């Protein structure tokens, strides 16, 4: 006979865990000076309230729209040029870092010899370093090195994305069927030929769709990088926020949303057509 | 025909790359010239001797803890708001609330963290509070959507069984739905935390506290030695959190 029991057997451990978590969080709240109240006291007297109330209507005079168009085109161009430069570095680096084209691996069941593994490490380390520093930090560094403007943004995207693309490409090469490339290598073909005829046909679709996805990310990143002075839409948003021009901020945010939406659709189209 | 269209697409891509370089008027030759390379080299060289004095390391430790607290609290707040918004967004309270919640989540998610931070600095003043709020706002959008999808995909039978036995809806949710859902929710939170620690360390660029603000200030004052210490601390923090979240994923999510 079943008996009703309203007791929760796991209640005590859960309560203790929650208390422990809260005790750990308390210094965190102190450190981050958390105060949700500031969001709700933004009345109409307040600077923020006036700023937000200026969001409607979004700025739409002729001169501003021209500026907006220019900034948007610049953002697109930064993302595209940065990706092109990143590919220049990522493709050779991924070919070197990947185990898929190792001659010793072809005859040893996929595990390269000691020397091969040692020689691949510096390239892998370089790729790790390139992608571990966030792109906006690179942008900040390049703004100091080459001056304000889109060049810093292009270089920052090129550096970070070559690290990411190189790593992911190398992994894609390794994750596909190794036998065609190994057969070619053991039959005496060169490495590039083995790659082009043994590996590439299997992985082309995946490479392409990842590259297009990264391009989409690069657009978002190039907007964000404008905040440290690397050109494009972000720089204009930063300027307008500093000038408390709410209408301009609103129309630029709308443009940004539209841009991301269009990039999303375009990348879907490209993936569907080319893969 | 298909081949022709693909060729046209490839040509359009090549053309847009060329057009981008032309539009930006990038002078790659000048960037790669001996003079500018020498300048870059000396710039890089100033980063090679990080400032490791005890007093600066103490400041770095405080900045790192601030960044860590910002990211953890931002993610936690986002998880709380996210689950509150995910319930209506998964259609638990009828369609008008569902579309309203989805619109709100999309809006929160679409605006990048850094833009939120710049806005929050205006609302809440300089300092880590603005950064925490910015992270919480953006991450609420992301987590709310992920939670809503998880809620929609979770099997309804356990909760229905409790309802049929006479349990109230809150009990049914806590004991029927949540146990199935918890590992997935935790996995999403950990994933966002990894992202947020990276973001928290750069939100300071617009004045939202943490390591980013230290980096921005020291680069503005041309103190490259200090800046390189901050970058090293950022890398260390990111690796630490990656390792921690990989460990807790092994421990709690896969079980």
Automatic annotation (TrEMBL), chain B:
The keyword GTP-binding does not apply. Keywords: Cell membrane, Membrane, Transmembrane, Transmembrane helix, Transport. InterPro entries: MetI-like (IPR000515), MetI-like_sf (IPR035906), PhnE/PtxC (IPR005769). It is found in: Cell membrane. It is a multi-pass membrane protein. Belongs to the binding-protein-dependent transport system permease family. This is Phosphonate ABC transporter, permease protein PhnE. It comes from Pseudomonas koreensis.
């Amino acid at each position: 006979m079943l008996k009703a029991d309203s007791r929760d057997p796991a209640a005590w451990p859960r309560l203790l865990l929650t208390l422990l978590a809260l005790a750990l969080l308390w210094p965190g709240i102190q450190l981050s000076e958390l105060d949700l109240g500031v969001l709700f006291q933004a009345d109409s007297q307040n600077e923020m309230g006036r700023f937000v109330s200026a969001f409607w209507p979004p700025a739409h005079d002729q001169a501003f729209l021209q500026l907006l168009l220019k900034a948007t085109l610049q953002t697109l161009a930064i993302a595209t040029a940065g990706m092109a430069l990143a590919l220049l570095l990522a493709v050779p680096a991924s070919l070197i870092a990947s185990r898929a084209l190792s001659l010793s691996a072809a005859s040893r069941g996929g595990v390269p010899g000691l020397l091969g593994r040692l020689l691949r490490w510096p390239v892998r380390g370089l790729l790790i370093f390139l992608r571990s520093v966030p792109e906006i930090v690179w942008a900040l560094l390049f703004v100091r090195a080459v001056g304000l403007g889109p060049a810093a943004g292009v270089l920052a995207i090129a550096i970070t994305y070559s690290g990411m693309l190189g790593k992911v490409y190398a992994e894609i090469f390794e994750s596909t069927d190794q036998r065609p490339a190994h057969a070619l290598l053991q039959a005496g073909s060169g490495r590039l030929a083995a790659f082009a005829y043994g590996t590439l046909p299997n992985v082309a679709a995946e490479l392409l769709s990842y590259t297009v996805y990264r391009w989409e990310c690069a657009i978002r990143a190039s907007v964000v990088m404008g905040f440290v002075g690397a050109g494009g839409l972000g720089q204009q948003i930063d300027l307008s926020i500093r000038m408390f021009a709410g209408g301009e901020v609103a129309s630029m945010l709308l443009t940004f949303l539209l841009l991301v939406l269009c990039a999303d659709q375009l990348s879907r189209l490209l993936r569907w057509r080319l893969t | 025909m298909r081949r022709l269209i693909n060729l046209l697409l490839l040509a359009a891509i090549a053309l847009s790359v060329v057009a981008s370089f032309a539009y930006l008027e990038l002078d790659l030759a000048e960037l790669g010239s001996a003079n500018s390379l020498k300048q870059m080299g000396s710039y890089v060289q100033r980063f090679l001797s990080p400032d490791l004095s005890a007093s600066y390391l103490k400041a770095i430790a405080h900045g790192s803890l601030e960044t860590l607290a910002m990211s953890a609290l931002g993610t936690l707040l986002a998880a709380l708001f996210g689950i509150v918004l995910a319930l209506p967004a998964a259609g638990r309270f009828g369609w008008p609330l569902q579309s309203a919640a989805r619109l709100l989540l999309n809006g929160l998610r679409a605006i990048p963290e850094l833009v939120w931070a710049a806005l929050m600095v205006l609302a809440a003043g300089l300092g880590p509070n603005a950064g925490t709020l910015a992270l919480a706002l953006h991450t609420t959008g992301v987590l709310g959507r992920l939670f809503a999808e998880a809620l929609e995909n979770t099997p309804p039978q356990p909760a229905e069984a409790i309802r049929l036995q006479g349990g109230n809806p809150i009990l049914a949710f806590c004991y029927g739905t949540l146990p199935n859902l918890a590992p997935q929710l935790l996995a999403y939170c950990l994933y966002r935390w990894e992202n947020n620690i990276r973001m928290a360390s750069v939100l300071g660029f617009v004045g939202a506290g943490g390591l980013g603000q230290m980096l921005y200030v020291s680069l503005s004052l041309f103190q490259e030695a200090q800046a390189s210490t901050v970058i090293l601390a950022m890398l260390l923090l990111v690796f630490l959190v990656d390792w921690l979240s990989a460990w807790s994923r092994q421990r709690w999510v896969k079980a």
